[in-house]
UniProtKB/TrEMBL annotation:
It is a multi-pass membrane protein. It comes from Aquimarina algicola. PANTHER family: COLANIC BIOSYNTHESIS UDP-GLUCOSE LIPID CARRIER TRANSFERASE, UNDECAPRENYL-PHOSPHATE N-ACETYLGALACTOSAMINYL 1-PHOSPHATE TRANSFERASE-RELATED. The keyword Transmembrane helix applies. This is Undecaprenyl-phosphate glucose phosphotransferase. Belongs to the bacterial sugar transferase family. It is found in: Membrane.
Amino acid sequence: MNSRAGRYSIYIKPLFGLIDLFLLNSIVAFFQTNIDQKLLFSFYISIFWIVLSIKNKFYDIKRFSRVVQVLASIIRQFLIFALILYAFIGFFKQSNISRLEMGKYFLSILVLVTFFKFLFLYFLSKYRGVFGGNIRKVVIIGNNKKTEQLIKFFSEKPESGYRFQKKFCVKEEDFEWDRCFDYIIDNDIDEVYCSVAELTNNQLRDIVNFTENNLKILKFIPDNKDIFTKKLVFNYYGYIPILSFREIPLDDSINKFAKRSFDIILATIVLVGILSWLTPLIALLIQLESRGPVFFKQKRNGLDYREFYCFKYRSMKPSTSHNQATKGDARVTRVGKFIRRTSIDELPQFLNVLKGDMSVVGPRPHMVKHNEEFAQRVDKFMVRHFVKPGITGLAQVSGFRGEIETNLDIVNRVKYDIFYVENWSLLLDIKIIILTVINTIKGEEKAY
């Protein structure tokens, strides 16, 4: 039985943590924070940093992790750490501490931790790609499009630290499991990748038993159908293994708190900085052209399919019809055409955000009757309601906003919405907001 070698990550992660703790405790000396109990402060931030890092899996960075994932991890870590940092003042009654200097200290830590994190990740990737260190040798069992894509990834990304050794085709006549297993042992292979689609249950059992008995890491390449396309999550209930179809990031209390805090801050800025003066102006223009209410409210389905009233500036003539606006719709006023084209009519939904019915970013809420219709004809449509609806969303910035003209429009919208639900991050929200602003300035074909 061979032991696993070259697991340098067992040292890398603690090293990252020790460097960050050193920065946390040393940089504070450069600021006039007026902290009286320096030892207590050092103990306080160190303990909370360690606990927060474990909870957020801050140092659980894989060799295949993307830059956007690392940035999202940093943002999540420091949003909570900022609250912990300022809580020290009130909890230990340190009224002499300078809030401004503490803020400077926080920003310095944020910049330095981010800088050193990416610096070490860069050197680590160079160490793998150029010097061939921290390498994991891999074999692939299976011969299909996905295995070829994986081989290409290993070949084109030497900095990821994987070295492809050999591919075994189980469907070939001369294939023998013993020969495959001997190769893995003789060449000290670290990881084995199997295509699920090409293996029988008995073969899967054999490869699992072999890898476990020889301390090899086994990973599966999913097929293109049924359960293996799901984002499965494995947990234990006592000693009973349980598989879940998906893990929703916003079910995590820290992620939920971070998103809600971001929503409240952004909604407050928009309401005070923009709507406070824009609303009277829009109200005047609406009233000059068409008598009636300034705001339009309509029932929509939100989180857990609960109904709420969604607010907009009224862009149509008062009517009993509640059908979705179409291109060239006679109900849309001249002012309405402008505010719809520029998406200004959606701005009152920041009130919905502040109330908690909506988020700034999320799947766009549909009318109740449309939800009932789409739920019948679009598979997995209801997954959208696992999170709060948004003023803008991934589907909207990906070209699927506005009127549903064909069945493909709603199918693609749901596809992007489900991706957002399963892969949420604060950085993704920020990216979607930036793209929304850019699209609004450029103008969109379906903004009518």
